[in-house]
Amino acid sequence: MDSKHKKYFETNKETWNKKVNIHAKSDFYDVASFLKGKSSLNTYELDEVGDVKGKSLLHLQCHFGQDTLSWSRLGATCTGIDLSNEGIKEAQKLNNELKLDATFIESNLYDVPKNVEGQFDIVFTSYGVIGWLPDLKTWGEIIASKLKKGGVFYIIEFHPIVWMFDFLQTPPKLTYPYLKSEVIYEEYQGTYANSEANITSKEYGWNHGLGEVVNSLINAGLEIEFLHEFEKSPYNCFPEMDKTNDGMYVLKEAQRMIPLLFSIRATKK
Known about the structure:
GO terms for molecular function: 2-polyprenyl-6-hydroxyphenol methylase activity; 3-demethylubiquinol 3-O-methyltransferase activity. Keywords: Methyltransferase, Transferase. It is an enzyme of class 2 (transferase). Residues 59-155 form the Methyltransferase type domain. Its EC number is 2.1.1.222, 2.1.1.64. The strands form four sheets. A seven-stranded mixed beta sheet has the order 3-2-1-4-5-13-10, with helices on both faces. A two-stranded antiparallel ribbon has the order 6-7. The protein is an alpha/beta fold. It has helices at residues 3-24, 31-35, 43-49, 66-73, 85-98, 112-115, 136-146, 210-219; strands spanning 56-59, 77-82, 103-106, 120-126, 147-158, 165-166, 173-174, 184-189, 200-205, 222-230, 242-243, 249-250, 261-268. The chain is built from eight helices and 13 strands. It has a single domain (3-268), classed as Rossmann fold, CATH 3.40.50.150.
């Protein structure tokens, strides 16, 4: 990791460490209901990943572990990694409270090969993850290296078209190019889980087009089973979204022409 990227990751880690305590207390993550048995997983990933019982699962960029632990409740043997040491601490706390057997490891994504042993039946990652990564070629290679033969990689993620908009402006303004290799810096008050929170979020991120995502997996030796795109999100995490009859969310009318999510399932042959 060069010194430039090290600075970016250190800033992002500091921001995510501050976010953890806010998010763990937020209505968005609703930890109280989670502890009582509510799953944090959504219909998209439950349907498309399928039965995980008896399988080993590596969750990349797991935040404070709710999805990891939800997979554990469904019978998977789970390992979650995240850049944030505070996130890992909170995940371990939840794991202990729920008396589950998930393993949580503090690790930058790019350090997974040296920090995580073994291979897995499933590698999973979801919602707001690849934008923190400058290099998807290495990302794809790490995923492939951590999958057993016949293993499945699954990602559900915000669509790259979404990240062309600056949501700090009202209405959101088309600001960023679809294909952009340079780093994007944003600084704003609050977080997506609590816009009123007393925190200044300082974040470095990167835009990645669908072609880059797909090719990074293909070039790492994975076989793409499907690429799906969705107009609805399970999360009310952008300004002024409309709730649909099925409990999902869409952008306001002016931006509604764009897809909100995509999912990919790939196999290691």
